[in-house]
Amino acid sequence: VPVSNIRNFSIIAHIDHGKSTLADRLLQTTGTVSNREMKEQFLDNMELERERGITIKLQAARMNYRGEDGQDYVLNLIDTPGHVDFSYEVSRSLAACEGALLVVDASQGVEAQTLANVYLALEHNLEIIPVLNKIDLPGAEPDRVKGEIEEIIGLDCSSAILASAKEGIGISEILESIVHLVPPPRDTVQEPLRALIFDSYYDSYRGVIVYFRVMDGTLKKGDRIRLMASRKEYQIDELGVLSPNQIQVDELHAGEVGYLSAAIKAVADARVGDTITLATAPAKEPLPGYTEAKPMVFCGLFPTDADEFEDLREALEKLRLNDAALQYEPETSSAMGFGFRCGFLGLLHMEIVQERLEREYDLDLITTAPSVIYKVRLLDGSEVYIDNPSHLPDPQKREAIEEPYVQVDMITPEEFVGPLMELSQSRRGVFKDMKYLTQGRTTLTYELPLAEVVTDFFDQMKSRSRGYASMEYHLIGYRENPLVKLDILINGDPVDPLATIVHRDKAYYVGKALVEKLKELIPRHQFKIPLQAAIGSRVVASEHIPALRKDVLAKCYGGDISRKKKLLQKQAKGKKRLKAIGTVDVPQEAFMAVLKLQ
Ligand code: GDP
Ligand code: MG
């Protein structure tokens, strides 16, 4: 088809508002995927993704559509991940489009994620088509939600589409709107090749499969390409379109979306946002907007069994082939032995990697509490960045510590404003703004230290608003604060993975709460175990775990003690992950204790 009949669009929505269901319906209605082939939520094909009901990895689908005007169109849907951790990928997918469907659940309304994505789409000058989904629900209030979209986003909703992705209502209207409202790509076939990478994944047979949108020029099978940021060159083996299964073609032109393989060894060599050009006739400038996604959250991963260290290394290597944002380097801890310090885009990314290591690679891991990157200015005038609290330089060498701050935007029903302000204040938040929206809903903006957000802020926000509030955050820079390192000593030995960096004014409270929590979490042993929290050599809180008494043991077991004990031990081993630190067995939960403080 001519470029004037191509439409590239994405769907932006808050989690659970129906993006995947709508995408399925579009694929079905256009006959791209037959009903028989249609698995539920075709686009979310990662197991983990489906279980959690979130979209992690974006993909694309090309649909052929005959419009009501009798013309044939190609509609490329570029899916976006639905989580703040992946907002850079969202921005690159949007950069590959000319329009977006804004899907809002008509029984809920605008949420924080909706807003964040709409702002990204507006930054890229996309044509935005509002779709009110789930109008089949008895609680749907399309007029109220239209008002919200107009008020908060400033988008005209007079021609918003009322839809039910589930019942198939409004689907043909949506397809027609895409044809009529989303502009066609610019016709720049004559210019030197520039194609934007918006996704990639590793395939063990073909190497990295790159998904891209041709912005200018033409790309042919067999072409020698250059990636402008990584400066690497490859020969294209395979070129094709996604319908949504891969179908090979000989060439792709400006405006089209496709995939290629070129014996690329790891996704880090073909990063999202990089520009593909021809090695023989390169473009002068790469496409704008490339940055390397930087990890913001770090933690230590240690095998419970020291023999599994090499297995862990191999598993991380394999995951890294497919995940350019994952960072890791070997770490040796006096308490934990050998492991890795790993960097992630955010907490969800961290959880996904941990879960995959355990499920797909069958590893038993101890994960230490998440930390952020601190900037430490030293007295000699130099600066260091540290991602591991136990590496904080001595106070005598430090001039100041700076920590990353984020702006957090929350949307909540009015009645939870109080509890959410209290939460934000208790996390050292700085109040910025509050706006009343329609029908008793409110936006609340705070600036917060990232370290206070990566702990359990999200869970707390959800529980204090009974699930009704939503949030979004983005980095706004570094700020100096009086921070100190809080060490935890178990049985007299400092346990480095339990060290945290805290605000001076909170150190006493955190130390006390931490040792109390550890007392609950660490099982009793045959001997008494002292627990201490200390800043330098000053102990700020202490507790102890009393020794087990033999008679207590006998009383509670009764009967054949040794048999029952063995049984119990066996059960405990299956359930509890323990790490021996000195002579003390410390369970996994203890390493996360800092996240469980009230
Ligand atoms: P996503 O997170 O935005 O991809 O949302 P999903 O497409 O996974 O949908 C979330 C939930 O809403 C699922 O249980 C869907 O079955 C349901 N859902 C999606 N669209 C509709 C709709 O139009 N009506 C109703 N009643 N439920 C819907
Ligand atoms: Mg989804």
From TrEMBL:
<dbReference type="GO" id="GO:0005525">
    <property type="term" value="F:GTP binding"/>
</dbReference>
<comment type="function">
    <text>Required for accurate and efficient protein synthesis under certain stress conditions. May act as a fidelity factor of the translation reaction, by catalyzing a one-codon backward translocation of tRNAs on improperly translocated ribosomes. Back-translocation proceeds from a post-translocation (POST) complex to a pre-translocation (PRE) complex, thus giving elongation factor G a second chance to translocate the tRNAs correctly. Binds to ribosomes in a GTP-dependent manner.</text>
</comment>
<dbReference type="GO" id="GO:0003924">
    <property type="term" value="F:GTPase activity"/>
</dbReference>
<dbReference type="InterPro" id="IPR035654">
    <property type="entry name" value="LepA_IV"/>
</dbReference>
<protein>
    <recommendedName>
        <fullName>elongation factor 4</fullName>
        <ecNumber>3.6.5.n1</ecNumber>
    </recommendedName>
</protein>
<dbReference type="InterPro" id="IPR031157">
    <property type="entry name" value="G_TR_CS"/>
</dbReference>
<dbReference type="InterPro" id="IPR000795">
    <property type="entry name" value="T_Tr_GTP-bd_dom"/>
</dbReference>
<dbReference type="InterPro" id="IPR006297">
    <property type="entry name" value="EF-4"/>
</dbReference>
<dbReference type="InterPro" id="IPR004161">
    <property type="entry name" value="EFTu-like_2"/>
</dbReference>
<keyword id="KW-0378">Hydrolase</keyword>
<keyword id="KW-1003">Cell membrane</keyword>
<keyword id="KW-0472">Membrane</keyword>
<comment type="similarity">
    <text>Belongs to the TRAFAC class translation factor GTPase superfamily. Classic translation factor GTPase family. LepA subfamily.</text>
</comment>
<dbReference type="GO" id="GO:0043022">
    <property type="term" value="F:ribosome binding"/>
</dbReference>
<dbReference type="InterPro" id="IPR005225">
    <property type="entry name" value="Small_GTP-bd"/>
</dbReference>
<dbReference type="Pfam" id="PF00009">
    <property type="entry name" value="GTP_EFTU"/>
</dbReference>
<dbReference type="InterPro" id="IPR038363">
    <property type="entry name" value="LepA_C_sf"/>
</dbReference>
<keyword id="KW-0251">Elongation factor</keyword>
<keyword id="KW-0342">GTP-binding</keyword>
<keyword id="KW-0547">Nucleotide-binding</keyword>
<dbReference type="Pfam" id="PF06421">
    <property type="entry name" value="LepA_C"/>
</dbReference>
<dbReference type="GO" id="GO:0003746">
    <property type="term" value="F:translation elongation factor activity"/>
</dbReference>
<feature type="domain" description="Tr-type G">
    <location>
        <begin position="4"/>
        <end position="186"/>
    </location>
</feature>
<dbReference type="InterPro" id="IPR013842">
    <property type="entry name" value="LepA_CTD"/>
</dbReference>
<dbReference type="Pfam" id="PF03144">
    <property type="entry name" value="GTP_EFTU_D2"/>
</dbReference>
<dbReference type="Pfam" id="PF00679">
    <property type="entry name" value="EFG_C"/>
</dbReference>
<dbReference type="GO" id="GO:0045727">
    <property type="term" value="P:positive regulation of translation"/>
</dbReference>
<dbReference type="InterPro" id="IPR035647">
    <property type="entry name" value="EFG_III/V"/>
</dbReference>
<dbReference type="InterPro" id="IPR000640">
    <property type="entry name" value="EFG_V-like"/>
</dbReference>
<dbReference type="InterPro" id="IPR027518">
    <property type="entry name" value="GUFP"/>
</dbReference>
<dbReference type="InterPro" id="IPR027417">
    <property type="entry name" value="P-loop_NTPase"/>
</dbReference>
<keyword id="KW-0997">Cell inner membrane</keyword>
<keyword id="KW-0648">Protein biosynthesis</keyword>
<comment type="similarity">
    <text>Belongs to the GTP-binding elongation factor family. LepA subfamily.</text>
</comment>
